[in-house]
Amino acid sequence: MVLSSTPGPLTILGLFLVAMALYSPVATTATPVVKNSVKVADKISKSSSLLKILYPQGAGESGMLECERWSVCSRVDTYSRPWVERLCTCKNGQLCSTSLHPDDGHTVVDRTRQYKVCEKVDTLPTCRFFKDITWTHITSADNKFQQRVHCKCPENSTTYISGHDVKTTSQGVLYYYHFSCSPESGMRCRRKEPCRLFTVRKRYPVEEVTTSTLCRCPPKTTCPSHHTDPFVLSDFDPNRPKDGTRTYSGFCGTSDL
């Protein structure tokens, strides 16, 4: 699938923020089934870390749907304390990776998230900036969610929502949100201009944080990597979504006193 127009930086950022309220697989108000501090089996993950594993509402490992081709079977969040969201099961008894390592051969990386697929990712083509759709989020009216990968973004790139549509199928009405690749910003931050945006969504028992780099800090300064770091301000919004989503702006700073 190809998009012909090239959006400007402000358009990309606006679409990105709107996407945060639309595409999340946890847009439903139902609380997902949670396995707290579950040690991932060695056959599934090479990591010995204790991870929180979230499952779709009313499902466990044995109650999930089978993955379609190039569907994401697990989403691994590495922003702070790692946690895993299981989405579907691989066919023929194959185990879906929940490894924290992005080089397991089944991982597509997007900032602090790792998308695990059943297939080998070395067969995926490389996306073209602004044109190809890297993945699609598909949500049904009853809040069932799946994510399908089409190509891999080049290195030093970020993703943004590039389009959406609605289709009526034998499964009912499905909502499609398409994401494309964009080069990371190479612009130098101006004085008092935020360098990074954090969108924080509270999910029991975890926090889902999306980051977006806006510009590069001048020499001898750094951009905060976490929304609780110094030089980060909470953005007051009287029309904040009811799900408790908050945004934070990070500014270039120095550790020198």
Automatic annotation (TrEMBL):
Keyword Signal listed: yes
Signal sequence annotation: 1-30
Alphabetical list of InterPro entries matching this protein: Argos
Pfam families: Argos
Keyword field contains Signal: yes
Alphabetical keyword list: Signal
Source species, domain of life: Eukaryota
Name used for this protein in its record: Protein giant-lens
Gene source species: Larinioides sclopetarius
